[in-house]
Amino acid sequence: MANRGPSYGLSREVQEKIEQKYDPELEARLVDWIIAQCGQNMERPQPGKQNFQNWLMDGTVLCRLINSLYPRGKEPIKKIPETQMAFKQMEKISQFLQATEAYGVITTDIFQTVDLWEGKDMAAVQRTLMALGSVARTKDDGHYRGDRDWFHRKSQGNRREFSEEQLRQGQNLIGLQMGSNRGASQSGMTGYGMHRQIM
User: Fold this and answer.
1) Rounded distance, CA 154 to CA 191, Å?
2) Which of 94-98, 161-165, 192-196 has the least mean pLDDT?
3) Rounded Cα distance, 15 and 152, in Å
4) Does residue 146 contact residue 134 with C-beta atoms inside 8 Å?
């Protein structure tokens, strides 16, 4: 972790708001999923944001997680070295993030390496893992392991095909968003330029 002093003023307020988004219940669900997905031989961390960060920080757990979502031999991260060097650990986190995007998680749902490494935004890490779980559940390719209620399925496109005849018929209809002229008449209206006659 970086050696930074405490923040003050607006920076402190922003950091407090970010920290309030962290969900301890979601942490427990994510730990359960990661252990179920990667295998029971994985060590469970103690509850708490700092312990969750330390568990994921070297990148090994994350790399094993993304590899477990692929068939054997098709894993995106071929080599997961056990190392204590900071830049190698950050490199593993970056590999996980690239593999996550390639798997189908949208870019806006993916955290930055420093969010995890420095503990700046652990809620963003949770959002990324939730998005990854949802994509894995949606793919339903047999590689997702865990409770099906932990993640929601992402919506998928429902593309429709219309024939030329149907498209031509649609051009003749006036949609309700254009308004309706039912019940409208011009009775009682006077034209512009004509003065009203008083009786």
Assistant:
1) 57
2) 192-196
3) 29
4) no
Q: Which residues, at least 6 apart from 39, have a Cβ–Cβ distance to it below 8 Å?
A: 68
* Model pLDDT for residues 107-152, shown as the tens digit of each residue: 998 888 888 888 888 888 888 998 888 888 888 787 778 777 777 7
- Given a cut of 70, whether residue 85 has pLDDT beyond it is yes
Confidence check: pLDDT of 1 > 50: no
H helices present in the chain, as ranges: 9-20, 24-38, 49-57, 60-68, 86-103, 113-117, 122-139, 164-171
Q: Which two tokens stand for residue 90?
A: 């950050």
Q: Give the span between the Cα atoms of 104 and 135, in whole angstroms.
A: 7
Give dist(CA 149, CA 85) in Å, integer: 38
Residue whose token pair is 């990148």 = 59
Residue type at 182 in one-letter notation:
R
Q: Give me 49's structure tokens.
A: 């944001």
Name which residue leads in pLDDT, 105 or 175. 105
- Give Cα separations from 183 to 13, 69, 178 (angstroms): 58, 61, 15
Residue 124 CA to residue 126 CA, distance in Å, equals 5
Maximum pairwise Cα distance, the chain: 99
Q: How many CB atoms lie within 10 A of CB 177?
A: 5
pLDDT of residue 11: 67
Are the CB atoms for 126 and 150 separated by under 8 Å? no
